Amino acid sequence: MHTDQSPFSKYPELSRLMEIGEPVCVTFETEHEIGYKVGSKVGHETEKRREAEKSIEGKSEEIVAGTGDEKFPEKSNFLFCELVQKARMGEAFLISGQSCSPGDYVLGFSEKSPAAYYLSSGRYKNSQAAENAALSLPRLEKKFCFMRIEPLSLNKGRFDVLILFLKPEKAMRIVQASAYSEGKRAVMATMGAASICGDCTVFAYREGMGLSFGCKGSRKHSGYADFDVPLGLSFEKASEIEGILSKLPETRE
Questions:
Q1: Neighbours of 91 (CB within 10 A)
Q2: What is the rounded CA–CA span in Å between residue 78 and residue 165?
Q3: What is the pLDDT of residues 148-186, one digit of tens each?
Q4: Mean pLDDT in the chain?
C-alpha cells in the first residue's frame, strides 16, 4: 500500500503508465549513509539509517544498519539490467559493481572498452565497427560511491534516473508530454546495445530522457517482454513530465 507520503504517490501519472511492476529509481550515492542491508532483497519495511564515521584507505565505510557489521556494498553477481527488472518487481539493491562488462564500462565501474567483446558477439561487421560502437556508448561521468536500485515505492524522494517499461502508446505519451511546453522533438540515440545501462540510465541522466528499443543482452538476460519499450527520465525531467501528462488529451477519445 502506498501512502500519500510515499514518493510513489508523487508520480501517479507516470506510475499509471506501467502495466506490470513499478518504475525503478537509480541513484548514484555520493555519501556513506546507507538505508538498508546491501546486496539483498528489501521488503517494504526499511531499516533504520545511521552514519558510518570510519574510513578505509580514504573511502567511506558502511555500517550495515541493525547488525553492527562493517561492510562495503558488494559487486552484484547480476547484470545491471537484471537488477532493474528485480527492482521493478519490488526488490532493492545497493551495489559497487555488476556483472556485465559493457555495463561496467558505461556506468563508470571500469575503463575497459567492450570493443573486443562486441566483435566476438558477431553483432558488428569488423573490428573497426565494433570499436566505433564502443566509442559511441554514453558513459557516466558523475563520480559516486555506490549505486542504489529500487522500486519507486521504496525511494526516499531523491533519485537520479527513473526507468519505466512501457507499451509503445504509453511511451508515446511521455514523448508528447516532453514536447508539450515548447513543441520540440525528442532526441533518441540508440543502437540496440547497452540499452538499460546506456540509453535509459546514462543518456537519460545526461539528456533528460532516453528512449530505447532494448538490446540483445537486456532482453535475453532480464526477460522483459518483446512489447516493452524501456525509457529513462532524469529526476528533473520526471517531475516535468508528471505535471504535464494529465493535461494531454487521451489517445482515443
A1: 17
A2: 19
A3: 999 999 999 999 999 999 999 999 999 999 999 999 999
A4: 85
Q: Residue 8 above 90 pLDDT?
A: no
Residues 6+ apart with CB under 8 A from 1: none
Which range is least confidently modeled, 29-33, 48-52, 210-214, 231-235?
48-52
Measured CA angle at 107 (ends 32, 193), to 5 deg: 155
Question: Whole-angstrom Cα distance, residue 220 to residue 224?
Answer: 8
**Dist. CA 175–CA 189, nearest whole Å:** 14
What element of type H or E holds 222? helix 216-222
Residue with cell 508528447: 176
Gap between the Cα atoms of 245 and 231, Å rounded: 15
Instruction: Find all residues with CB under 8 Å of 55, minimum gap 6, and list them.
Output: 61
Q: Which residues of 179-194 are buried (b: 16+ CB within 10 A; e: fewer)?
A: eeeeeeeeeeebbebb
Q: Which of 78, 65, 107 is nearest to 201 (CA)?
A: 107
pLDDT at 6: 58
Q: Containing H/E element for 60?
A: strand 59-60
**Alpha-carbon radius of gyration of the chain:** 18
The conformation of residue 162, written as its DSSP 8-state character, comes to E
Q: Which three cell numbers stand for residue 237?
A: 525531467
d(CA 22, CA 63): 29
> How do residues 29-84 score in pLDDT, each as one tens digit?
987 544 444 444 433 333 333 233 333 333 333 333 333 344 678 899 999 999 99
Q: What are phi and psi of 59, to 5 degrees?
A: -100, 145
User: What is the C-alpha to C-alpha distance for residues 103 and 10, in angstroms, rounded to an integer?
Assistant: 30
User: Is 193 within 8 Å of 102 (Cβ atoms)?
Assistant: yes
